[in-house]
Amino acid sequence: MVVTSQKAKQLQKVLDSHLLSVGVSLAILIDEAGNVIVASGNDNGVDTTSLAALAAANFGATAQIAKLIGEEDFSILYHKGKKDNIHFSKVGKDFILVTIFTDEIPLGLVRLRVNQVAQELLDLLAEN
Amino acid sequence: MALIDLNRREIHCKIVYYGPGRSGKTTNLFYIYNAVSEKYRGKLLTIETRGDRTLFFDLLPINLGQIHGLNIRIQLYTVPGQSHYRATRKLVLKGVDGIVFVADSLRKRREKNIESLLDLKNNLKEYNLTLEQLPLVFQYNKRDLITSAIPILTIEELENDLNRDLKAPYFEASATKGIGVFETLKEISKRTVKYVARKYIFKQESLRAEGGLL
Question: Which of A84, A90, A77, A79 is nearest to A26 (CA)?
Fold first, then answer.
């Protein structure tokens, strides 16, 4: 897929205004092959290339688990750390939105916002 | 699925090293990682089981420099070769742009090579891809053992078993010593970048010519 400068800015703006504005530290939109399409926020030295590859693989692996119990896939994954938490959410069929946030941000708020931006991101991505 | 990021002026391509277990896919990546200066490579990511077999995949991002003002970034992946990891191999193939098939020259691994190539074909089919359409390079590894007493397949036998119909380029290699590793990488990179450019960039340009979205 091709991401133009204009498209990257539009996508980034959506991430900034809905996710970073509520305190999410880092939001990354990736595709299912593990490519970073756009990232926003403070990466604090996080290796986003590895993170994207592992996130895509993680989704693939849990989709297989889903199939074992008769589900198509799991659309949301969440891992809780001591300080930082990570939330993965499927955006359409081909994309994944990864958000990293501290304990100070309620999970419910992140889930709500991720849900709200999903369609907006999808519309922008579909315009290609 | 390659990603062309015109904002950062980068092209990302995914090359997967496929082949039977213990044929030397990870060894290829390790050799490249150690030989390339830090400026041109990212972190090597490996997920291994005990006994240094790949569990999920290895990933090595490489920067090939610029073509037409665009930075070419290649992500090299390996798959776990052991036959029971089929589901994992299929996952890693998602969005693949080029394939290196690392075959084992040991005579006793002959069936495993053929089996692995068939498995690759079947996995690609599930993504509506064929080996004929994708950039492909064969690497016949462990050629250094030819001087030892261990029975080794000849190049003719390997070609006949694997590459008879595909007619892809092949390289003789000894990945532990680095022989043939960069020749393989260079050829697959060249073919992959060409394939991606033809598939995505020219398509977009023709769209633009037709008053499209760019």
Answer: A84
pLDDT tens digits for range B97-125: 999 999 999 999 999 999 999 999 999 99
The CATH number of the domain where A81 resides is what? 3.30.450.30
pLDDT-derived band at B214 (thresholds 50, 70, 90) equals: very low
Which chain B residues touch A125 with a CB distance below 8 Å? none
Domains of chain B with bracketed CATH: 3-178 (3.40.50.300)
Nearest CA in chain B to A128: B213
Chain B residues whose CB is inside 8 A of the A38 CB are 7
Q: What is the pLDDT of residue B200?
A: 79
Distance in angstroms (rounded) separating the CA atoms of residues A39 and A27: 6
Interchain pair A3, B6: CB under 8 A: yes
Q: Assess whether pLDDT exceeds 60 at residue B210.
A: no
Which of A32, A38, A49 is closest, CB to CB, to B61? A49
Angle at B133 between CA B93 and CA B167, to 5 degrees: 105
| Domains in chain A, number | 1
The nearest alpha carbon in chain A to B8 belongs to: A5
Q: Which of B95, B115, B96 is nearest to B17 (CA)?
A: B96
Average pLDDT score over residue span B38-67: 84
Is B95 in contact with A33 (Cβ distance < 8 A)?
Answer: yes
Domain residue limits at A85: 5-126
pTM: predicted TM-score of the whole model, two decimal places? 0.89
Please give the residue of chain B at the shortest CA–CA distance from A9.
B7
CB A87 within 8 A of CB A59: no
- A6's tokens: 């204009």
